Amino acid sequence: NAGVTQTPKFQVLKTGQSMTLQCAQDMNHNSMYWYRQDPGMGLRLIYYSASEGTTDKGEVPNGYNVSRLNKREFSLRLESAAPSQTSVYFCASSLTGPGNTIYFGEGSWLTVV
Amino acid sequence: QKEVEQDPGPLSVPEGAIVSLNCTYSNSAFQYFMWYRQYSRKGPELLMYTYSSGNKEDGRFTAQVDKSSKYISLFIRDSQPSDSATYLCAMSGNYGQNFVFGPGTRLSALP
Description:
heterodimer; A: about 110 residues; four-stranded antiparallel sheet
């Protein structure tokens, strides 16, 4: 009953360091997403992948890169972390097409000092 | 104007109260409407899903959609302390992968 699994759950980075957030889903979904959630800003889409091999920018892609490794896995990379990237990151997945619902992981809390 | 507006709260109610949570939106292309519940330090979990206008009931929860007014509501009857969470509205259209979320309303149901 795993659903969407994210790692790590908590991470502290120094400014300029890089790291990768990992995400895997076991629901056979085609589409996967990365969001960040900040107080007063709600959920903002960073990148999404409609299918294996494709990725597209969302609302706030700057400073991030993604890789859709296979149908199950979608990773988010911060190449040179900045304090403005301190946030909670959520991976999500859905079936492709209208009328489907989106399912979220438990979140990754990232602090950049 | 934001695409989806939601009163951020916080909203405090006594146990047993009826709670009304609301969202307004501007894009008439939205067809599918969802409510998510998010507990502190957790990811959003799907609570209710409705298509187009009308009501849907599930236990103590009722989701209502009024497309003519671009207004959706979530009613919680007999609120419990376990209902204390942030509630996010979300919506999507027939054009693919675009889910749009409200900023969330933080609810505290006090015993």
